[in-house]
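Can you please make up a protein's amino acid sequence together with its fold in token form to help me picture the idea?
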Amino acid sequence: MYVVLVYDVEVKRVNKMLKLCRQYLHWVQNSVFEGELSERDLEILKKKAEMLLSGEDSVIIYTLQDGNWLNREILGKEKGVIDNFIE
């Protein structure tokens, strides 16, 4: 499945969340990641992310069963290039 993950965490946890997300997904913009994941890997990522969260932190995960239904448009500078993006 195709996953878009967005997080908003306290500054002292940003680097840990960044490193975790980079293990599973492609970085595309500050605190935004996307990519293809199996259901198992998504569950592992969610459990690890939950262990990092505290207080007012949040993670939003959008999942698409078929990447062909995703329309992606970038306005301005593209920060994280994804060469294998499904269109």
Notes: Residues 11-24 form the longest helix (14 residues). The two ends are 14 Å apart (CA to CA). Residues 46 and 61 are 9 Å apart (CA to CA). The beta strands are 2-8, 26-29, 32-36, 58-64.
